[in-house]
Hints:
The structure holds two protein chains of two kinds. By secondary structure, chain A is an all-alpha fold. Chain A is built from two helices and no strands. The longest helix of chain A has 48 residues, at 18-65. Chain A is rod-shaped, with a radius of gyration of 26 Å. Helix content of chain B is 77%, strand content 0%. Chain B has ten helices and no strands. The longest helix of chain B is centred in the first third of the chain and has 33 residues, at 16-48. The mean pLDDT of chain B is 90. At the A-B interface, helix 2 of A face helix 3, helix 4, helix 5, helix 9 and helix 10 of B.
Amino acid sequence: MQFQFENLEELLVMAGHGEYVWTAVLVSLLTMAWLLVKPLQQHQHNLRDIARQHRREQQRQTTNEAP
Amino acid sequence: MASSKGWTWFYRLGSPRWFYETTGRWLPWLGAVTLLLISIGLVWGLGFAPQDAKQGNSFRIIYLHVPVSFLALAGYYLMAIAGAIGLVWRMKLSYVVMKSAAPIGAALTFLALFTGAIWGKPTWGTYWVWDARITSMLILLFLYLGVLALQYAFHSQEAGSKAGAILALVGTINIPIIYKSVDWWYTLHQPATIKLTSAPSMHPDMFQPLLVMIAALYCFYALALILFTRAEILRRERDATWVRDLALQAESSRENE
């Protein structure tokens, strides 16, 4: 197994095909990253939301119990 | 009863809490393996695999195009099966999995079309042709988006899930059409690189990194599916005690930071 390119520039240019290959790589990695970041954000958001809702319900209960 | 014991795993699998807690332990490992496999596969495929005699370096797009297409198709089966289990057994978790599979499948199908179009330009001289393979993949994208949208189109979550599951099941007819499209119709698209029934049509030096990337995408898919499913479980089980405890625990650990 051998590295196919002489230097970094050749790897980027890929004998004229670099723009196609690297665009495909970049868009794929960004889309895939989004598929991980999005649910993680949603997860955090839901946890916060649930805690806030619980707090509100508790407050309502204590005000109702007060005479 | 002996027979009932054999089914406990099946019912446990349907428990959102069990799923949430078990997958929580897997996540760090699965994440590490996914990252490792993607790194190895991409460096190997983009830098070390020999270039194609006819297509030159543009062929390297195969290391993304084939794996994402694989998972776009496999993910559809998974979504349809999850929908069917939901319809038949009313298993809570399976509708959650179905819902989670839709955005992942849509994104991967988009990537399959996008990387295919970019590969088409230097190879066929055009980004897009309305041939059977590409058109049926476009239909797959619309099916995913349809399942995604249908779930929000009803007031009741149950009705939305049912409608989504039925559309997912009807849409499975498209999958064999996609697989067979390169054989049934004349097309610019090259025939399948990998077939279960015969040796690969590629040189091993090119084929091995492709296998690594396919394994990487399977891991990635599992990771994304678990993450989406866990977030949705919290939303649907928000009134359960264990979810509330989890939320309060997370809040207090944020405050302590």
